[in-house]
Structures are given as C-alpha cells and as structure tokens.
Amino acid sequence: MLSTVKTPSTFSLNKVPEVTLLFWLIKMMSTTVGETAADFLNMNMGWGLTNTSLFTGLLFVVVLFFQMRSDRYIPVLYWSTVLLISVFGTLVTDNLTDHFGVPLALSTSVFAVLLMIVFGVWYSKEGTLSIHSIITPKREGFYWLAILITFSLGTAAGDWAAEGLDLGYLNAATMFGTMILMTTISYYALRADGVLCFWIVYILTRPFGASCGDLLSQPSANGGMGLGTTGTSVLFLLAIVSLIGYLTYRVKIEALEAESR
To answer: Which keywords belong to this entry (predicted)?
Structure first.
C-alpha cells in the first residue's frame, strides 16, 4: 500500500499523491475532523443539520471544481477536497439517519452496494482501479465518487458499530484498527493485491477515524475523553495543516530538481 518512489515527471501527471505513511496520517486525521467538524457546525454553532449540509456541500463542490480543473497534484487543493468530502460524506449519513430515520445497518449495506457498483463501472470503463493512474477527468471523476461513498459508508459503519452494536468508541476503534493492521500484514507478508488492500484500508480508516474522533470529543458519560468537538477539530486541523505545508514544500523541491536535470 506504500507506493514506490515516483520520478518527478510521473508524479506531476497523476492527480493523486504517493501512498506513503504521510498519506495515511492525513487521511485518518481528515476523517476525524470530518466527524467532529460536522458535529461542531451542526450543534455547537447551532446551524442545524440542513444548513450545515448545504454550506459544506456547496463549499465541497467549489473546491472539487478547482481540483478537477488542475493539471497536476497540488497538496493544498487535493487535501482540502478530501477534508471537505469527509465532512460532506459524514453529513449524508447523518441526514439519512436523523431526517429520514434510515437504520445505520441499512445505510451501511446500501453504501457498500453503491461502492461495489461504482467500482464495477469504473473497472469496466477503465480497466483499472489503481490510484496511480488518475490522469484523465473520467478516472478522477470515478475516484472522487468512490471517495465520497467510502466516507458515507465509513460513517454509517462506524456509528453502527459504536452505537448500534453498543461496542463503544474504544472497542469500535480497536476493531477497525485491527482490521487495518490485518490488511496491511496481508499486503506486506502475503503479497495480497495492492489495489484491493488500498481500497479496503481506505474504507476502514473512515470508521476508525470517526471512532477515534468520538472517543476524543465525546464526554466521559458517553464513553469519550471529553476533549470536545472544538478541541479535537483544532488539534487535528493544526496537524493536517503542518503536514500539508511539508508536502507542498517537498513538491516544490522535486519540481526544482526536475528542472535542473
């Protein structure tokens, strides 16, 4: 799941970053921020679920437009899209649960089926699901659609495990973390398919991050550590901004090195 080192020319063509440890760290923190930020805007700011969904949905569409228009991987733009799609994907599930009364078990099943359909159509059209080949608008469109569904699926699965199955946030985080570890071991030790392992881990990091976010932010009476949605969101946002700043610097250095050759 950790990609090999790319040359600057290859790196500039692909719209998705290298799958390294930093990729997974930012992704997991983005899922946590998605969970806590949605709760913060909805409840702490008093926006309500509908207004929060409309605002974040509009902001997501605007950022996604510029991401799709770009001709290369730009760390700030790419990870801003991931962060917003995390919040919006969370709100899709929250709306289904709170406004329409859809059970979390059903949401989990429906999103899982939708994701399989997207993967099936994507593969039939492009012949690959590899994120190392996101070099056309069509492939990038399939990529972001799949990402959106993984966040909604992960939110439903995480809430279902922690609340519906009454596992609690710590046990849910442990369960999903163990599944991620097992998939990683399968990739490195058993040489399991890299594309399959990537998407499995990508899906699992959403409920893992959501469970960790709830564990940190929820009050102790609810099984959390009581940091609150504000404290948790700020903590992880600062970490994300720092890592994106480092990635932006590294991309610029790679571009300068490529020009000097």
So the answer is: Membrane, Transmembrane, Transmembrane helix
